[in-house]
Amino acid sequence: MNSNPYESPAVVAEDIDSARSTLQVPAFLLLVLAVPTVMCEVVAGYMVVIDTLRFMEQYGPVNGLLYIAPFNLIYLAILAAHITVIVGVLNMLRTRGYRVAMAAAILSIIPILAPCYLLGIPIGVWAFIVLRNPSVAEAFAEERAKD
Q: Rounded to whole angstroms, how far apart are CA atoms 105 and 120?
């Protein structure tokens, strides 16, 4: 028996398997929300390109680009965040890349970056709570040790 009462208990293999299964549901739900979100954003990217060209034609190349550039940068940042969520969710499903999985959960909590916006927030909170579980972190560490 360890003398430190605040130390987390040793994690056994059954706990690691149950930790993996606990993580599967929120990860799958985030994936179901994130993939259509990115698909819609890719389609919206076509409209962003068309608007950029229209503004450059209407106001001249320099003024049109200066006017529309901040909107394009915001669009690209949101698209990159949603792609990061998908990569992190895939890492959650494979129990690899704990940091990227945690980043995906945190990004899913931020309202403008959540997959399907407000629908992704509670699932992101759920994934974050599950990822903070010591047995889940141990499952990620075990997968990393196998490599």
A: 10
